[in-house]
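Training component of the fellowship. As part of building independent skills, the fellow (R.M.) carried out the full modelling exercise for a liganded target. The chosen ligand was NAP. The inputs are recorded below so that the supervisory panel can assess the work.
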Amino acid sequence: MAKKALVTGITGQDGSYLAEFLLAKGYDVYGMVRRTSTVRYERIRHIQDKLHLVQGDLLDQTSLVRAFSDIQPDEVYNLAAQSFVPTSWNQPVFTGDVTGLGATRMLEALHTVAPQARFYQASSSEMFGKVQETPQRETTPFYPRSPYGVAKVYGHWITVNYRESYNLFAVSGILFNHESERRGLEFVTRKVTYHVAKIKLGLAHELRIGNLEAKRDWGYAPDYVEAMWLMLQQAQPEDYVIATGVTHTVQHLLDVAFQCVSLDWRNYAVQDERFMRPAEVDLLVGDASKASALLGWEPTVTFEQMIEKMVAADLERLKKDPDNVI
Ligand code: NAP
Ligand code: G4F
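Fellow's submitted model of the complex:
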């Protein structure tokens, strides 16, 4: 019998890649989707006929209990979140409810009606915030710098707590930034590659941007979803850092992206206060040696290769449809 996986956040960047990965492994994939007035399934449209989509919302306990009870999944990947850091200052209570308490609702549903299921929680390097050591590893203390980071710390510890309280197979992947051609347009890598493509095609003339000094450890999303799956295949439930171990500034991102189309970012980028944050995470760089040793996981795509892919994909999309915003 095929294994059954339930993925929350299936319409997001990671959810779409994870769904593809699990389908290729022969899983029956159940994706949780929430009701919205406009359906936005762009990232999963190409596999939609192979998926079982179930309605549910991390804010609605009953929908989660029903989903767990009906599906009786073998594996659960909790990827759903309000995941954009700046929005978390505008909507801190909502972010806490979805991104933090949402994890408790998922674990409580699992504990109540499907305790045999293995559970993955999408934790984040944002939890390290004002970093207490470099590089950051599983044992590095957390010091979150945004309501989003605080909510993720809660989600992380409630996962540990349910594991220890109820002996559940519940793990937390502390994933550093990972990007792709499917990244949301508001995140800095995609914002840059999309604008580079627009500027190259004469569809835009400037890129308004925030802090150029911030450093991130950026990996490629398809590599990272494999790590999620590997964590649930282990004999023991443990938490892992997933990162490339290489960090770059936002300014370097501009260098690399504009070089892809032989342009100089200095002629187009305009710093704009609106994109500065009330509290910044200045530096992230992860130590994934535990994942390398125990999961055999390694990143396969470099930062430069990834940005090149993203620029190429944005050029392709915009050439076909100049209004394309996917
Ligand atoms: P994303 O593209 O923003 O996707 C978020 C997903 O969550 C979407 O499918 C969204 O559905 C869903 N969602 C939001 N609120 C929900 C709710 N109340 N109930 C049910 N579903 C809801 O995020 P991502 O980049 O794929 O990241 C996946 C997870 O990993 C997130 O938890 C994120 O915080 C975490 N993470 C991401 C990174 C990264 O660099 N990408 C790094 C570390 C951790 P709609 O389509 O309906 O909005
Ligand atoms: O791309 P970002 O918005 O990602 P951020 O805040 O690091 O969060 C992402 O990664 C986390 C993992 O560490 C995830 F948990 C989270 O869900 C999300 O996926 O910003 C990256 C950096 C920041 O330092 C920001 O200040 O880029 C800087 N930046 C500079 N100008 C900008 C901009 N960020 C955005 N979004 N837009 C700008 O114009």
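The panel noted the following from the submitted structure. The first strand starts at residue 4 and ends at 8. The longest helix spans residues 92-113.
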